[in-house]
Design brief:
The complex is a heterodimer. Chain A has a single domain, classed as 3 helical TM bundles of succinate and fumarate reductases (Up-down Bundle). The longest helix of chain A is centred in the middle third of the chain and has 28 residues. In chain A, α2 packs antiparallel against α3, α2 crosses α4 and α4 runs antiparallel to α5. Helices cover about 70% and strands about 0% of the residues of chain A. Chain A is flat. In chain B, strands 2-1-5-3-4 form a 5-stranded mixed sheet. In chain B, about 40% of the residues are buried. Chain B has 2 domains: about 100 residues, Ubiquitin-like (UB roll) (Roll); about 130 residues, Alpha-helical ferredoxin (Fumarate Reductase Iron-sulfur Protein, Chain B, domain 2). Classes of the chains: A mainly alpha, B alpha+beta. At the A-B interface, α1 and α4 of A face β6, α5 and α9 of B. The structure holds iron/sulfur cluster and FE2/S2 (inorganic) cluster.
Chain lengths: ~130, ~240
């Protein structure tokens, strides 16, 4: 005789590893999260730069040459735009989490802040100030 | 006009997994997915199982996946879809039969955050509130417990113990209520790894919420509250 049939089995589907490929919405989310990858590369560049600076003149010059190679410039340009994209998504989410002022005002304020810090750094590092 | 619905059928007494079945239904501009399901049940196949009650987006019982997106069947119209429409039971929940999901885990999560006013002053008197105090939480109090946000949330899909958007929104709704004194009782739930920190702000829950509650915002406001709770905890004797 066969086993008594089990009834009332609810069907539970499992999320597969590629769940985020299912929707444009999830893909955009993953893109936002993935912006950290080129940023890691850039941080690596900076650290190696610091290291070579205190190591020897030759290694510093090597590093400068490395930073000027087209693929490194390309990757760092990618980092730049990825970070801008991440900033955009972050700035838009922020007013929803801390709704102090009207959202457009807060978004504009954050961009203004970013721009001023970037300008200040450019002035400082560019040797104007 | 006619349209084809591809419905995921599942009979727990016969099937091991859901399988699609095609139905063609008559429709006009006012036909909702729920209307189409009712037509199928009444005219084509009386065994089709699904939940519904109010037909006006207020009871929250008719949630299904329409073309892979969580929707209220009564608030989704056939006119907005060009081709065949697939209808499945809500994602991330267990399917009991056809389009009926087992919502018990959702209800347990709602209960876990003590979603009611906790006030030590039990004297029978009104607890007054200004419009400004009301505005703080009013938006988050419109939840109809449809569970769509859970079907949109991959974190809940990956970890069913995660309290999830609606429960965390409800916690925030009561924590922000000036008449409530239960925040200290709710924070341990919110602070845990299945609380607000389980959220990575995917944000799809806010997109699918039929009442525009913005649950993602509520959950992340909960993170601010949780962080504050932590810092205050350090300095408290
Ligand atoms: S927060 Fe919105 S989507 Fe989630 S259960 Fe409530 S009404 Fe439904
Ligand atoms: S039937 Fe009540 S919300 Fe759709």
């Amino acid at each position: 005789m066969s086993e008594p049939r089990q009834v009332n089995r609810a069907y539970q589907s499992q999320l597969r590893r590629n769940w985020w490929l299912k929707h444009g919405y999830y893909q955009r989310y993953m893109l936002r999260e993935a912006t950290v990858l080129p940023l890691l590369f850039f941080c690596g560049c900076l650290l190696t730069g610091l290291y070579s600076l205190q190591h020897s003149e030759q290694s510093w010059l090597n590093w400068l040459a490395f930073m000027a190679t087209p693929w490194v410039i390309g990757l760092n340009l990618l980092t730049f735009f990825a970070s801008l994209f991440h900033a955009k998504t972050f700035f838009e989410l922020f007013p929803r989490v801390l709704p102090i002022l009207p959202a457009p005002l807060m978004i504009a304020g954050q961009w203004l802040g970013t721009l001023s810090v970037a300008l200040l750094l450019a002035l400082l590092l560019g040797g104007v100030l | 006009m006619q349209k084809t619905l591809v419905i995921q059928r599942y009979n727990p007494e016969q099937d091991h997994k859901p399988h699609p079945q095609h139905f063609t239904v008559p429709c006009d501009d006012s036909t909702s997915v729920l209307d189409a399901l009712l037509y199928i049940q009444q005219q084509l196949d009386p065994t089709l199982a699904f939940r519904w009650s109010c037909r006006m987006a207020i009871c929250g019982s008719c949630g299904v996946m329409v073309n892979g997106i969580p929707k209220l069947g009564c608030k989704t119209f056939l006119r907005d879809y060009k081709d065949d429409i697939t209808v499945e039971a809500l994602a991330h929940f267990a399917t009991e039969k056809d389009l009926i999901s087992d919502m018990s885990v959702f209800l347990t999560h709602l209960q876990a955050v003590k979603p009611y006013l906790i006030n030590h002053d039990t004297r029978p008197q009104p607890h007054q509130q200004t419009p400004k105090q009301l505005a703080k939480y009013a938006k988050f109090s419109n939840c109809i417990n449809c569970g769509l946000c859970y079907s949109a949330c991959p974190q809940f899909g990956l970890n069913p113990a995660f309290l999830g958007p609606a429960a965390l929104t409800l916690a925030q709704r009561y924590n922000l209520d000036s008449r409530d004194q239960g925040k200290a009782q709710r924070m341990p739930q919110l602070n845990g790894k299945n609380g607000v920190w389980g959220c990575t702000f995917v944000g799809f829950c806010s997109d699918v919420c039929p009442k525009q509650l913005d649950p993602a915002a509520a959950v992340n406001q909960g993170k601010v509250a949780s962080a504050a709770d932590f810092v205050i905890g350090i300095f408290k004797p």
